[in-house]
Write a structure and sequence with these properties.
The complex is a heterodimer of chains A (272) and B (144). With 272 residues, chain A is of the alpha+beta class. Chain A is built from 7 helices and 11 strands. Chain B has a two-stranded antiparallel ribbon with strand order 1-2. The chains are: A alpha+beta (272), B mainly alpha (144).
Chain lengths: 272, 144
Amino acid sequence: MQSSVSCRMRFAVAAIAAIAWSIIALRWSISRRGSPWRHRAVMVAIIALAAAILSIVSDWRSIQLRLRMPRSGVTIHIDEIGDWWRLTYERDGMAFVTANELHVPAGTIVTLDCRSRPVGAWSAHDFLSLGGRSSFIAETPGVDRALLIRLFPPSRRHLRIVADPAPDFERWFANELRPAATVAASDLFVSSGCSYCHVIRGVAEDPSTIAPDLTHFGARRTIGAMDMPNRRGFLSGWIVDSHALKHGSEMPDNRLNPPVLHKLVSYLETLR
Amino acid sequence: MRRANLPTAHEYHLGGCLFICSAGVILLGIFILVLSFITREDWTASLRPVGYIGDPARGRALVSMYGCPSCHTIPDQAPHGAVGPPLEQMGSRSYIAGRFPNEEIWMTLWLEHPQNLKRDTAMPDLNVGRRDALDMAAYLATLR
């Protein structure tokens, strides 16, 4: 089981600022005996100190982890596009795009760069706030499902976080960098119209961001940026009529010729 | 006139009696629970439709696992797909796929390899095993 901890260093920075402010306020109030502001300043300083101590205590584990854990050098840019997540991985000048399943190496610090509006996220173990750049640590390997809630505009989404052991993550990373092979069935992907919105690197590359990248779709655990397992029955239903499975889905209905549908599903399963 | 050797109302040991009774009720409850746990197989067997050897309860779970509701509307199972025909009264239907009699053997064969019975059907071959197909056939036959 996984225990994911986001380093909420912003809280710690706020705490240090609060301590500094309280020291300044105390010095100022002491230097002005008899001032009516003196008692107020003391009260403010006490409250600021209490808040600072509370936030440091609550963040203690995050701060410790951030100091102790090694950095992986992986930066993950998270873009919320419509109702799915585009994930751009970057490390040492190598980059690739994937979607909806956030793979992280367990036991190391990764940098999350959420370029959409901030969103509150609850995973099974910790609260984390996504927005701007933040550090993220998954202490142990495992799969976690984070619930992401934004109040305005109201939205409620899931993000699957998969923390792999370091060797597995390296294997996954190297595999994701690789484009898909062109096979006979990949023509179906283009001729069926999937490539108007979806990208499979090596088969249909159009730098559009309308729909998730499907280069290594077969290796994903779920489909539709939701909790639906990536199995043939669900996938067939999803391709033909995704609206029955997800309210507000942007994928159009595809009434494909049945043999083409089956071949396409088999092809998507081979994209590992 | 007072009868000899009989206690008056306030002399009955009401507390003791209640204690013994409640212990009896609890014991009886535990006995019923244990009995129902032992005979739980028989409850599902009573739901099994005539002419089917599968387990409908397991079949219900399998229907959800294979993703049937993503194309067919099935009572009490989400989502409600509209790609294929609704299975709300599958047990009462006469034919499967408009062609084959709605019997255990045909339903099992249909679930295992739809393309073997109807070459151009849109229903995908989900690599369903024989036991799973029998259980799902039994479940579908209970939908009336």
